[in-house]
Specification:
By secondary structure, the chain is mainly beta. The protein has one helix at 74-87; strands at residues 10-15, 19-24, 34-36, 42-46, 52-56, 61-67, 93-99, 104-116, 129-142. The chain starts with 9 loop residues before the first strand and ends with a strand.
Length: 143
């Protein structure tokens, strides 16, 4: 079995009308590469009689990507942000993440850039930039 290092993972992103061929993202931050945040998969309500009811609710999949300030992949995100600003439109992204340590391939569909660090934070050295994309769905397949 492979080790649990993130160093051998592969994140590929494509953006319709801009980068139709998937691009490998490189130059992750030292402590944080990427993560899919927790999601709320439903709602619950406690009745006055003490009985809990619940139901499924659809939810977006938030993905955070952290890149070193000098990562060449910052250019990918800067071009995406600029193209949207110029067009006055949101572009739709697709992503795949291969995590070799767990043998998992995650596929993200219909994503929209939600938040981005437009420049690195300037401290002693330039800090990593963070990009947040919300996807419509995620699926998992073993590799």
């Amino acid at each position: 079995m492979a080790t649990l290092t993130t160093a051998n993972s592969v994140l590929m992103l494509s953006v319709a009308n801009l980068f139709p061929v998937p691009v490998q993202i490189q130059g992750y931050a030292a402590d944080d590469a990427f993560m899919a945040e927790e999601v709320e998969t439903g709602e619950t309500y406690m009745g006055v009689d003490g009985i809990l009811s619940g139901g499924f609710t659809p939810y977006p999949i938030p993905l955070q990507i952290h890149l070193q300030a000098d990562s060449v992949s910052n250019n990918f995100f800067d071009a995406w942000i600029s193209a949207e600003a110029q067009a006055g439109e949101k572009y739709i992204a697709e992503a795949t993440i291969l995590i070799q340590g767990t043998g998992a391939l995650y596929t993200f569909t219909r994503g929209f850039m939600r938040k981005s660090a437009v420049m690195p934070e300037a401290k002693k050295i330039l800090q990593p930039r963070q990009f947040n994309i919300e996807f419509n769905s995620i699926s998992l397949a073993p590799v």
